[in-house]
# Entry
Amino acid sequence: MEPTGSGYLEFDQVSFSWPNGVNVIDQFSFSIKKPGLWMLVGENGSGKSTLFRLINGVIRPKSGKILCSLRPSMVYQNPDHQLLMPTCKSELMLSVPKSIPNNQLFNLIQSALEKVDLGAMLDRPIHTLSGGQKQRLALAGAIVSNSNLLLLDEPTALLDPQSQNSVLKVVKKLTSSSNDPITAIWITHRLEELYFCDGAAIVKNGAITKWNSGAKVFQELKSLALR
Ligand SMILES: Nc1ncnc2c1ncn2[C@@H]1O[C@H](COP(=O)(O)OP(=O)(O)O)[C@@H](O)[C@H]1O
Ligand SMILES: [Mg+2]
# Structure
């Protein structure tokens, strides 16, 4: 398998409209060519979740090209809509690729739990987990499925500050670890999170801005809000 570090995602003049609608995505061109934590901000209805569906391949562009060598997986706002099984272990079993031999299952699942700071939770019933722990379990699911592109659609919107921090910290670690870092795209309305990213862009009026530093995008949005 190719090293994660060489993966890419590229949009080349991609447009998309829902039936009877205007172009929600209007000639988007951008690329991500190295691992890291990339954040997207934009008003409700600006097309951020639609963009994720295009990356994930659930919908196809009306025109333009999407080139992606990464293996995407989604993490949603509400983990209760994503987690299906009674325990952490049984939940992760669902995401293990069929090609993994039985004698490697335990190590794979345990190491994924450790990567998201849930190492002691193998047999824990999911209903006893906090919101932040549930989101991290969803991340572990993506890891065992061998995904290397996390698409996080407002993953902290329903969490308290402590849980919010725990999820941000784990995603930051996964995307910046010296050993096999992965790529994450994170949609947020919580602007203070921008300070943790490696690049941020604004989705607005069918367009996407260039990648900028999180601090710059934070300042820009604050000054717009003050006008
Ligand atoms: N499944 C759908 N069918 C029709 N229109 C949709 C669908 N999903 C989203 N839209 C429309 O596309 C636009 C962008 O929505 P969305 O991508 O969800 O924005 P965001 O995630 O930025 O809030 C909105 O006008 C929304 O009503
Ligand atoms: Mg959305």
About this structure: The chain has a mean pLDDT of 95. The two ends are 50 Å apart (CA to CA). The longest strand covers residues 23-32. The domain at 1-71+148-227 is CATH 3.40.50.300 (Rossmann fold).
